[in-house]
Amino acid sequence: MSSKNKVALTLPDGSVREYNGPVTGMTLANDIGPGLAKAALVIVVNGEQWDLSREIEKDSNVSIITNRDDEALEILRHDAAHILAEAVKELWPDTQVTIGPAIENGFYYDFARDKPFTPEDLERIEQRMKEIVERNEEIIRTEMPRDEAVKFFRDMGEDYKAEIIASIPSNEPITLYRQGDFIDLCRGPHLPSTKYLGSDTFKLMNVAGAYWRGDSNNEMLQRIYGTAWRTKKELNAYLTRIEEAEKRDHRKLGREMGLFHFQEEAQGSVFWHSKGFRVWIELERYIRARLREDGYNEVKTPQLMDSKLWEQSGHWGKFRENMFVVPDMVPNAEGEIEVPKDARMMALKPMNCPAHIQIFKQGIKSYRDLPIRMSEFGCCHRNEAHGALHGLMRVRQMTQDDAHIFCREDQIIDETKRFLRLFAQVYDDMGLSEIKYKLATRPEMRAGSDETWELAEKALAEALTASGLEFEYAEGEGAFYGPKLEFHLTDAIGRTWQCGTFQLDYVLPDRLDANYIGQDGERHRPVMLHRAVFGTFERFIGILIEHYAGRFPLWLAPIQVIVAGITSEQDDYVQSVFEKLQAAGLRAEIDLRNEKINYKIREHSHAKIPAIFVAGGREAENNTITVRRLGSNNQETLDLSDAINKLVTESIAPDKR
RNA sequence: GCCGCUAUAGCUCAGUGGUAGAGCGCACCCUUGGUAAGGGUGAGGCCGAGAGUCCGAUUCUCUCUAGCGGCACCA
Question: What are chain A's domains?
Fold first, then answer.
């Protein structure tokens, strides 16, 4: 028991330091050693990050965060955001500040103002930030009573800040941070002064619009993004990393490799060129085989269906603005389009599920028939917002490797596990390992009872855990008809995309009146599991292009091998090699151009062709071939049949190995 | 859909109030060369679409369309 004034601080190594009264983190660090005092950034007091200048009044467990700790970077970036805000306020005092957190790789700050920031403004701001860093302004924490704080910010014309205070729970203190003349509402903690952020370790990246509080009903603010690091070296490494990553961008590679293109007349829909479509064909063959192995039966359902069905399914109500709707009519002889009032409305399917239920409903199903795993490479159309479209990742016409599993409630966990096994197999085959698993739970707007949701969410969590997968919850992100598992992959630029999905649905079978006869002779509702492994071919191929940086494994490569001759003397031999490669089922091309071998090698290497077969006089004479593989500067001369066999073996798809 | 930026040759990009240029690619010719660019010649553009200002617009202004970066929405 410590006396009233004494403060005992327990360090991570278990040692205890006693003080005769309140003590700051800075004092403690100084007492431990001058080296630590220099490196110290923030102190953790009973698990909570505190400023070094804040007085610790009670016995506590403490640890000191230095520049070397990962947490330091986040605090540094948060400081950078404040310095950004200070710079903007100095340059344009009328601009209102709102929020500015640290994010992955950097920070941002949202401002409210009429005039947009220009690139020149960004330069000025960055320059001013450097000045503020050099000023080495002390960052001072103060607490303020709630009412006073609201008035304080209102008087300054900072209405957003006043609004934020109102949303802070009443049991939490209102803290302000001052640096120079700039005062911001902030939870903290911050570093002792602005110079802790180096003047050459950060960079402003871009400006973008962002809604106040993330709500599209609110006004739009101007967000400035920046990146910040411990050292200039780290900053440069990051900038280089981004540059490198941009080279893998599937939109760039897709054009360079001639895989696909987009054009205005078909916004958001892909023109697949023959090379790109070869990847698709191979993937489709592969997943079809995997699905068949796993007990799925493939179907094909209509593209265009009466709006009545969509009304019944609930899509008309919930998904209407994303649906392409067409009247069931043709233009008159003059080509004019007049839609009669009573025209039947048809919709291009945005999903396959209602159609699959129609198939399920044909005939009477017994509990013995379940589960039924019904798959379809369904081509769907969704009228995505213009601003959402993004290369292959977000399109308006997409083909899913979709399937619906109709099952009894007692089969849910087994079916989930079974799906997770399939999923793991497929992603392993593709060499994709960095997958984020998320369990999306009940949203505010939802159908079904809480008990049902409780059960469904538990079932998914249990199946994930049983499959040994680590996951995080995405609260409130579930579909209105049920919770879902989301499988996220990251693209070259660091954005994450949901590919595979697994959703529980108690609602749709009910709305569309699907039932089966149970053991008890009564009718029961089946549970419907919506699931996709790739998600959509479009997005998945986009991810694969970036994942492989265009260097597809042999089984997926659009062109697997190119045969090139050294001189025109070997044209006949080269032609015969090419024919043998084709006969062996390989995707081969031939290069008889009047170019030097150096040139051909360079060009085909740039085109990311996995194998180049070179034939000169020696090869033609001995019936051999010299093989050069992508990524290697070595070459190897082999008997032609051996070389072909080797390639054939290597190009066997994972499902046939 | 919202905020901002961009749109010139197949690709990457210069450029100008007086209707355009480079490199790569492409075509033809010379060259027959052994593993990442051999040489020469040449053909390609309604300067995204529409309107306005001007004697004259690819250039300035406005509208539209598409793309890009975010936000919102979502596989």
Answer: 7-66 (3.10.20.30), 72-245 (3.30.980.10), 283-300+350-547 (3.30.930.10), 561-656 (3.40.50.800)
